[in-house]
Amino acid sequence: MNNFTPFVQLEDIIRAAVAVPQALPEFVDQLNTDLMQQASLKKRKILRPFYLRPVWIVLFAVITFLVVTTLIIGPQRVYAAVRQLFGYIPGVGIVEQSNGIRVLAEPVSVEQDGITVTVKQVVADATRTFVAYSVDNIPSSDIPICTIPPTLQLPDGSTLSFLSGGEGGIGSENGVPMQFSTNYTFPPLLANVRKVMFLSPCQMPAIQLILIPAPSNFVTPAVEIEATSMSSGPRFLTTSTPAPDKTSTSRPYDPSAPATQTPVPHGSGLYLDRVIELDNAYILVGNFTDAGDLPGALSTGSLEVDQFEHPIQITDAAGQPVIYKVRYDIRPAVEWGGVWYWAYEISKPVHGPLTLTLASVPVQQEDSNQFSLDVGQDPQLGQKWVLNWAISIGGYNFVIEDVARAENGYTIHYHSAAPIPEDVNIVLYMVGADPTKSPGSETRHSDVVIYSETLNFDDTPPVGNLTFLLQLNKTVRLPGPWTLTWSPPVP
Amino acid sequence: MAIPIIQTSLPEDLQKPDEASLIAAAKKDPREFGQIYNLYVQPIFRYLYSRIGSLPEAEDATAQTFLAALEALDRYQHKGHLAAWLFAIARRKATDHFRAQRQQVPLEYAENVPSETDLLKQVIQTEQITALAKLIAALPEEEHELVRLRYIAGLSFSEIGRLLNRTEAAVKKLLYRLLARLQSQLEVPHE
After folding, report:
1. How far, in Å, CA of B164 to CA of A319, rounded?
2. Are B48 and B65 in contact (CB under 8 A)?
3. Where a domain ends, among B86, B105, B124?
4. Nearest Cα residue in chain A from B28
5. Which of the ends of chain B has fewer CB neighbours closer than 10 A, N or C?
6. Residue from A5, A9, A18 whose CB has the most chain B CBs within 10 Å, to mutate
7. pLDDT over 70 at A56, yes or no
8. Domains in chain A: how many in total?
9. Which residues of A touch B178 (CB under 8 A)?
């Protein structure tokens, strides 16, 4: 018996026992095509603003011990007309009924060359015009498909461009033509407008949309009630870092998005923006805002992705968990830096007060260092500058080994003198330039990690004095908890 | 007699692609997502096929996984766990599938499609493979999932740990205990 026989043999047998086939090449190719079409649609979405600010890892380690809890009392937002009448349309969101709601009587289609464009739904209220449509039977010969957004043409000949939307999925099966459906939000129509033209993108015929008053049962009654709440959360005793820039963010692009950044009178924390009451449920709409007093920039994108679920827990007066639905059709589109919006529907009866708890938030830590190199005015392909310069970033020591002139840019070799944790990202920039990156390599050894990165340029690579910036960033969980307590109105 | 156990692990890739760069590129231009897709389409498909057991439905779940990943890419904050993120999406898609179907196909009942490991199967004694397939099929779901993630999807211990919300050491311990048990049940002949 061989006492040193490892599991290797057994693992080989396991692999054979559980073997499954590879995906068929035609499927892989087809899905790749579908994804590229989806990516083309996604590429033209409105870019959302973000902000970053330097946070020093060592400082963070100290200040997390200096936490106090404060109690803050709402309301954060008081409406002039509490108990304002609204309506709710699933999939569309909250609609404002003061001028009436106009809708498309039934779906309308046009067909050309086998391709069908169908406007499925139009909802026009005093604040916006919602249009949902689909394109079917797109033949593979039309790949890449046209992704120009539609416009609405008014009776006076003027046109409306979309404010937001464009998200949606492309569908196809092997060999079956492609299909996609999406929706867009346009500016509101004047109250007397009953006909608009849907100018189909991509040389498809226009579609006349005739709007009619919404049937009486079309809209679920909804009432906005006063959003009064009580919040608590930790305070971090640190030198205040700049709050998210309120003026550099782009314009609000959808009436459902707040026109101004959420006021943060009590610093970072949970804020309740509005409460909408339906016949059988309440919808709480709020946010977590980074007011600039956290020891690191809030990583809003990680709030949901990190835990693979929505991070807020809701409990009732007895401390029992409350089941809720996430209302994506009501949640404001993320528009303001450092603000994460949420909208939850809670079925009646509600045994209040309800406590919403956010146990922790992800914040971004960064540190960086830079180095400069003069490559002269005529660096030659393959020319290499051996540097072996030591730099320190975020407590880690690196050695910049060399920089070499590559075909379309520069290749930089560097290594860390100690293993870098896998959750620390390392990003190399060239200051004052916007190169594209080739996939680099990262070779991990027991005591050193060797990196190689190439910065490529579409045009002639810069020459002369080049400054490179090496940045380390890491998302860490900043413990709270932050809580928000809300009581339903007494009947 | 069963073979004494010496704990080993599969060799981890020493030179992984720079996923951070791939993700950054894909966030800048979603069409660059294709590079991520090419890296993971086969492991994701194999994993979903092993769970679903039907080629067209595994293909459908694979497509849904990557479309969802592409949509969510803007919100993904890379912390070195791209595989765990993608497989978390794939697991949700598999769960969605079973919610609709109300059934789960054990690995041993997967459709018999020729695979790359057929040659290996011929070399290793068929009885062992058959016996092991039955043992694996009878495992509790948690251990079954561990087998899928490790031996079908080919994930590292670290990636499995991230996915299952356990430490890397805990995953290793779980797997080695499982292997030890399987080995003792299998009575693997040795040289």
Report:
1. 27
2. yes
3. B105
4. A43
5. C
6. A18
7. no
8. 3
9. none
